[in-house]
Amino acid sequence: MAHLCPVCGFDGLEEPPYDAMGNPSHEICSCCGFEFGFDDQSQGDSFSDYRKKWLAEGANWFDPARKPENWSLKEQLRRIGVER
Fold it and tell me: I need a labelling partner for 73 at 20 to 30 A (CA). Which of 7, 23, 58, 59 fits?
């Protein structure tokens, strides 16, 4: 089962970003590159701050090999309630 990235809306995370106890998965999103448990805790980035930086830098894929053929940034962001 794929899980949703709360930063960019990518629906391909292998694990939930956090477990029921709030512990981070330390998975890195293939799309935006956010690492749960590092970027949020060690770096102090909020989801919205990281998303703004990622979008400002061109919304480039962290792992381009995982980018879907018919990818739409607009549709992906809608999954998390962000209009662009």
Answer: 23
